[in-house]
Amino acid sequence: MTDAPLHINALIIDAADPERLAAFWSKLLGRPISDRSGPYVWLRSESGLGLGFQQAGERKSAKNRMHFDIASSDPGSEQQRVEALGGRRLPEYADGGFLVMADPEGNEFCIIPQGSVGLDDQGRAHYLG
To answer: Whose CA is closest to 22, among 45, 3, 40?
Structure first.
């Protein structure tokens, strides 16, 4: 055992259809599919972090315990692009002030403005105007 700190090597998303989900995220993030091996489809690694999609037997059935925040200079325009790629907005989270979206399999993620996001005392954002 060493005292060296661990680092996150890759984020893996379970998927009913890893090819479809990888294609969505590839287009959204501008990271091409770089490999397919066994039940995995991988996007090109960036900044030492891999992003993979693993074939899973069951479909997503509850809210994610972890999600991505994707920064954009124009979150509203990105919402339209996400929807054109097959994602959708999740209006049930609108009270929080964040632009919460879902990928084609329902995995939640937020589109936030670049830079800092101001929050009120209840943790709500106010960047959607």
So the answer is: 40
- What was the pLDDT predicted at 114? 94
Q: In the predicted model, what is the mean pLDDT of residues 87-113?
A: 95
Tell me the chain's radius of gyration from C-alpha atoms.
16
Q: Which residue has the higher pLDDT, 99 or 129?
A: 99
For 67-129, CATH gives 3.10.180.10
Give yes or no for residue 57 having a pLDDT over 90. no
Phi and psi at 117, nearest 5°, equal -110, 115
**Sheet harboring 33-37: ordered strands across?**
10-15, 49-55, 40-46, 33-37
